Structure formats: C-alpha cells, structure tokens
Amino acid sequence: MLTYTARRLLSLIPVLFGMTLVVFAIIHAIPGDPAQVILGQRATKEAIETLTRELGLDRPWYIQYFDYIKSLFTGDLGTSLRTRGPINQEIWPYLAATLELTGAAMFIAVLIGVNAGIISAWYSNSWFDYTAMILALIGVSMPIFWLGLMEQWAFSIQLGWLPTTGREDVRDPITAITNLYLVDTLIQGRPDQFITALKHLILPSVALATIPMAIIARMTRSTMLEVMKADYIRTARAKGLGMFWVVYKHSLKNAIIPVLTVIGLQTGLLLGGAILTETIFGWPGIGRYLYDAIGYRDYPVIQSGILIIAAIFVFINLIVDLLYALVDPRIKYNQ
Amino acid sequence: MDSQSILQINDLKVSFYSGERYIPAVDGITFELKDGEILGIVGESGSGKSVTSLAAMGLIPSPPGKVEEGCILFEGKDLTTLREKEWRKVRGNQISMIFQEPMTSLNPLFTIGNQLAEAIALHTKQSKAEGVKRCTELLRLVGIPRAEGILQEYPHQLSGGMRQRVMIAMAMACNPRVLIADEPTTALDVTIQAQILSLMKDLNRKTHTSIILITHDLGIVAEICDRVIVMYAGQIVEQGDVRTILKTPKHPYTEGLLRSVPDLRGKRERLYSIPGNVPAPGSIPKGCRFAPRCDSAFGKCHEAAPPIYKTGSDGHGVRCFLHKVGEESGEHVGLPS
Ligand SMILES: Nc1ncnc2c1ncn2[C@@H]1O[C@H](COP(=O)(O)OP(=O)(O)OP(=O)(O)O)[C@@H](O)[C@H]1O
Ligand code: SF4
Ligand SMILES: [Mg+2]
C-alpha cells in the first residue's frame, strides 16, 4: 500500500505542473496588453507601466513562469490587485467556507444516497424502490437555484425554522480560528454558536447535495443489483449469513468501487460549481470570492482560485484511487 | 445395509414465474439421502439438478422461484415450513453447499481467513484464537499445507483447485450432516478434479458426512458414488445402486448417457450423444417427457406419462413403460416402506 501510494503521488507531479502552466497562461491569453485590459481604457500610462512591472510582464515569459513556480513553492500566491493583500492569506476564509459547505453536502449525499441505493436494490421493485428512484430522477433534473429558493421560502420565510442566508448570526459573530465554523465553535466551547452555524449550513448543503445524492443513489442501486447476483453472494447465504451482513458486508464492499468514482467526481464538481448555491444563500465561499475577482479583473486572484480548485480536484482523485486500492486487494497487483 | 435416511425429499415441485404463469422446473421429485452415503445426481443441463439442491438449502431465488409442493425432511423435520431466520441455522451448519465456479464463489475482497472465520463464527461460539485454530485445522483437513499463510491471502492469489479446497473447508466448518456439491469439479482440470474427488471421498469416510454430488459426468459417479439418481426435464427417470445402474441401465435416457461416456464400459466407441435437447420447462411434451428423443418410444409413450416402476428389491426404479413388468410404485420408489 505504501509503495502504491508513493507511486500515485509521484504520478501527480506532471499533472500539477501542467496545471500551473495552464493557470499561468491565463493572463497571457488576454488579447492585447494585459495591464491595459486590467486597468481599463482610461488608465494613465504610468499606472499601466507600474502594473506591468508589478505583474512582471516586462520580462520574458519563461522567467515569469519560473518565478511563478518558485513563489508557489514557498506558498506565495501573489498579491490581490483589488485589496493589495497577500492572496494566500485572503483566500483561506473563503476556501474554508466552501470546504465546509461541500463537505456537509457530500456527507448528506453519500449517507442518504448510498443507503437509499442499497435498500432500493435489496427490496427491488418494492414501493421503497419505486419512490426512491422517482425522487432520484426528480433530483438529478432539479434546477438548484429553484430548489434553493423553494427551501428558503418554505423553511425560512414560511416556517421560520432556519436562516435564509449567511454563515453566522451577525449579532453574535464567530471568532475564526480554522474558519471551518463547525470546528471553531466546538474548539471554543460554544455549543450555542455551533447550533447556529449548523442551522445556517443546512439549507445550502441540502440544496447542493440534491444532485449528487440522486446520482449516487442510482449508481449504488444498479451496482448493488449486479453484485447481488454474484456467486460469492450465494456462497455467503449458503453459509447461513443473514441478509443484513450479506448486503452491508459482502455486497456493499464490491458495489462501492464504481460508486467511489462517482463520489469523487461529484465532490470535485461541487467545489467548482458551488457558486450558484453560494450566491443564493449569501455564503462567503470561494465561488463568491472568484466572482468578485472576475468583476474587478483581479487576475492574480482568479489564477490562484482556479489553481487551488484544480489542485483539490486532483487531490480528490488521488484519494479515490487510494480508496480503490484499499477496498480491492487486486488493484495493487494488477499494475 | 439399510441405513437411516438423513434427508428425504417428497414430491418436491419448484416453479419459476415467467411472464404470466409459474412454470415447474422441478416437478415431483422424491428421493432420500442415507446417512453417510454419497448420492450422485446426473442429468443434462437444465434437468433441474441445481434447482433441487438449492431448494434443499432454502436458496431458491424468490421471486421468481417458489417451492410449490412437497416437503424436504431433514432428520424428520420439514424444512419447507421454516422461516428465513430458522433456515439460517440450517444452512452451513447442518446442510452445506459448494458450487461449480471456485473462481467466483469466494468474495474477492475478503481474505480466505475472514471468509472461513465467518462461516465458523456464524454457528459456533468461539473465541478469536479458537476460531483461527479451527481455520488452520480445516485447511489441513482439505489438504492445504501452508494453512497459516493462506489465511492472509485473497482468493485471486490461489489457483482454482486451491479455491475449491477452501470452499470445501468452508462448507465443512461446522461439521454439517449433509454436503451438497453442485458440479464441484466441472471448472477444474482433470488432475485437480481427481484430487478434489478423492478429498470428498475422504471427508465422507472420515467425518461421516453424507454427500449429494451433482455432475454431468457418469465417470465421476462410477468413481465415488454409492447410489445415483438420473434426472430428466425436472423428474427422476431412474434411480438405484450405482453398480446396478451402470451395469444394467434400464431407462433409455440412462443408456444414452452411458453411451456418451467414453471408456466407461471398457470398449472405446465413437462418442455418442443423445440427439435433441432437454425440453425447456414450459414446453414439456405430453406423455413421456423423453419420448421425442427416445429410440424405443412406442404409441403409449406419446399419450400417457409413465410412473416409476420398481424393478428390483434394491430400490432400483425406472420411469419407463418398457419396464412395466415390475411393481408400479408411483412416485415413492426408494422410500422405506
Ligand atoms: N433463477 C431462475 N429463474 C428462472 N428459471 C430458472 C432459474 N433457475 C433455474 N431455472 C429453470 O430451471 C431449469 C433447471 O435449471 P437447473 O439450474 O436446475 O439445471 P441443472 O440441471 O442444474 O443444469 P446445469 O447442468 O446446466 O447446471 C432451467 O432450465 C431454468 O429454466
Ligand atoms: S416410456 Fe417410452 S418414450 Fe419414455 S423412455 Fe420409455 S420407451 Fe422411451
Ligand atoms: Mg446446475
């Protein structure tokens, strides 16, 4: 397992380099003079020259790339043009907010999706199966913004159970440590704030979870149905094993492998695609941060945001691959 | 030599739902398994051998299948009335089963040790250490030398023969009274096949486990079985002592099967195969089910279904009008009267 992990890690190096190259190229893909474009039509000549120097655009591109890589290695993501602050410090609270939201959404999606899929396969063609699969069909085709608005209408405005927007109660702000508010409130021993943070998290994460949950449920059901026909399932039953263990031990472990791929893919998509949900629910996440940066043509921030999301995407894929090998002993040997 | 019967199947009828009706795949089967014997079941593909044995394990896939009639008596107790929870105490404990495909019959994602220990833990209360000890004991019993090493390995690391040994070890984990082996050697090559068969014969002698051995191969039956049942299209067409049946088969179908085995009776003849196919359940001909393929068929065969006729004192029975001379015994040949 260790050598396998090491090998997989090594194989990431070219991928990560490729990513930096693409991200680096973004600023050079701007037609015309980037500094001019960033500053707009009425910028003075001096301002343009200053920015050109600041961005290092006056030097040959390979030097620029080398510098870029060098600073990345030290964890330096550059300076925001808008706030003049270091991006690596600025970006984290937004990223943390998104990670918390995506994490919660995937938790819901996997927990409910996998179990619904299992029970649907176990009792296939039962009323549970039919109901779950109809809901899943509705789920995959649900427009998220509409679902979000409906949730707000029902649970905030009509019932008043949950807050409409934001991450915290503005009258009782949470002191950020990790910026993952569920963690921070616990560290500080503030269960009341934890509940508040949780309440803020529910509506957006449910909205975000809907599509992956539906996809995971359908995927789990179909792979489970396939696996439950296998000879080793019959063997397990012939031993006298009860259906619960047949399903949750013998079938699930085999059926989960293709589902892991879907889970990984969906997590990546959520990270990149949370912006709509973040907008509807006023969630100060990376999507919002990038959205604002695009409005200001804050290229260094845009580049860093894309780089980080892409890196997380790659990282998730790595985790999925490692989980494969952990679940299936044949994988290590077959390569 | 009349020993006690341990498993007794009476008038068993198993049907599968297809489209709009239930079609019987096993249609009124009656036989007994005596304590300590090896009983062979032979017959072409689709004759209902697997369905019969799965019924005895309570493992008929349902839906679409169901046991429609008959009873399965294990040590005098009817199993067909058991609920799933009670079945679980029988499976793997009193009646075990091994299957044709050793390649796919073990779960690829769990170690041999895990799967063996599971079989033991299900029916016995043992500490973990005792469980491990029992695992290695079992692996030795089935002739696997480096038992401790194998426990840590996964099925894909073993050969087909090894896997089938593991399957047998698993089936023997709780000292079952009955072991059902559904074509245990079909997927293995000839030398391994011989080893597995002699292992089963050994286990039968050492542990006194009764065995039902399902096979296509009359050669295997000749080698290790005491008695044999010949099945055709969901029914028993001939049953009796192996020696009697192999030497003097009475049913034209059995004769045909014997003629398609090379070498069995000394002379090498051109490999014969019975023309035609087993009728699919649902398209069973009127009269004798074998009539369309039978060389000796005569008028009556196409009109009435023959019962089983007793042709000797040793329980030899034949479902064929040609042997009407004997006492007509209905479906109950082989039952102690
Ligand atoms: N799961 C099932 N669903 C529907 N029909 C079935 C099912 N299992 C068996 N049958 C029917 O029962 C008949 C007998 O099948 P069975 O598996 O017992 O044959 P067999 O004698 O074991 O043949 P083989 O030598 O190929 O294993 C088949 O022809 C099939 O029509
Ligand atoms: S009853 Fe007739 S058709 Fe059937 S096996 Fe005997 S001779 Fe052949
Ligand atoms: Mg079969």
TrEMBL record, chain A:
<dbReference type="GO" id="GO:0005886">
    <property type="term" value="C:plasma membrane"/>
</dbReference>
<keyword id="KW-0812">Transmembrane</keyword>
<dbReference type="Pfam" id="PF19300">
    <property type="entry name" value="BPD_transp_1_N"/>
</dbReference>
<feature type="domain" description="ABC transmembrane type-1">
    <location>
        <begin position="95"/>
        <end position="324"/>
    </location>
</feature>
<keyword id="KW-0813">Transport</keyword>
<feature type="transmembrane region" description="Helical">
    <location>
        <begin position="301"/>
        <end position="327"/>
    </location>
</feature>
<dbReference type="GO" id="GO:0055085">
    <property type="term" value="P:transmembrane transport"/>
</dbReference>
<feature type="transmembrane region" description="Helical">
    <location>
        <begin position="255"/>
        <end position="281"/>
    </location>
</feature>
<keyword id="KW-1133">Transmembrane helix</keyword>
<dbReference type="InterPro" id="IPR000515">
    <property type="entry name" value="MetI-like"/>
</dbReference>
<feature type="transmembrane region" description="Helical">
    <location>
        <begin position="201"/>
        <end position="219"/>
    </location>
</feature>
<dbReference type="InterPro" id="IPR045621">
    <property type="entry name" value="BPD_transp_1_N"/>
</dbReference>
<feature type="transmembrane region" description="Helical">
    <location>
        <begin position="130"/>
        <end position="149"/>
    </location>
</feature>
<protein>
    <submittedName>
        <fullName>Peptide/nickel transport system permease protein</fullName>
    </submittedName>
</protein>
<feature type="transmembrane region" description="Helical">
    <location>
        <begin position="12"/>
        <end position="30"/>
    </location>
</feature>
<keyword id="KW-1003">Cell membrane</keyword>
<feature type="transmembrane region" description="Helical">
    <location>
        <begin position="101"/>
        <end position="123"/>
    </location>
</feature>
<comment type="similarity">
    <text>Belongs to the binding-protein-dependent transport system permease family.</text>
</comment>
<dbReference type="InterPro" id="IPR035906">
    <property type="entry name" value="MetI-like_sf"/>
</dbReference>
<keyword id="KW-0472">Membrane</keyword>
<dbReference type="Pfam" id="PF00528">
    <property type="entry name" value="BPD_transp_1"/>
</dbReference>
UniProtKB/TrEMBL annotation, chain B:
<dbReference type="Pfam" id="PF08352">
    <property type="entry name" value="oligo_HPY"/>
</dbReference>
<dbReference type="InterPro" id="IPR013563">
    <property type="entry name" value="Oligopep_ABC_C"/>
</dbReference>
<dbReference type="GO" id="GO:0005886">
    <property type="term" value="C:plasma membrane"/>
</dbReference>
<keyword id="KW-0547">Nucleotide-binding</keyword>
<keyword id="KW-0472">Membrane</keyword>
<dbReference type="GO" id="GO:0015833">
    <property type="term" value="P:peptide transport"/>
</dbReference>
<dbReference type="InterPro" id="IPR017871">
    <property type="entry name" value="ABC_transporter-like_CS"/>
</dbReference>
<dbReference type="GO" id="GO:0016887">
    <property type="term" value="F:ATP hydrolysis activity"/>
</dbReference>
<dbReference type="Pfam" id="PF00005">
    <property type="entry name" value="ABC_tran"/>
</dbReference>
<dbReference type="InterPro" id="IPR050388">
    <property type="entry name" value="ABC_Ni/Peptide_Import"/>
</dbReference>
<dbReference type="GO" id="GO:0005524">
    <property type="term" value="F:ATP binding"/>
</dbReference>
<feature type="domain" description="ABC transporter">
    <location>
        <begin position="7"/>
        <end position="258"/>
    </location>
</feature>
<comment type="similarity">
    <text>Belongs to the ABC transporter superfamily.</text>
</comment>
<protein>
    <submittedName>
        <fullName>Peptide/nickel transport system ATP-binding protein</fullName>
    </submittedName>
</protein>
<keyword id="KW-1003">Cell membrane</keyword>
<keyword id="KW-0067">ATP-binding</keyword>
<keyword id="KW-0813">Transport</keyword>
<dbReference type="InterPro" id="IPR027417">
    <property type="entry name" value="P-loop_NTPase"/>
</dbReference>
<dbReference type="InterPro" id="IPR003439">
    <property type="entry name" value="ABC_transporter-like_ATP-bd"/>
</dbReference>
<dbReference type="InterPro" id="IPR003593">
    <property type="entry name" value="AAA+_ATPase"/>
</dbReference>
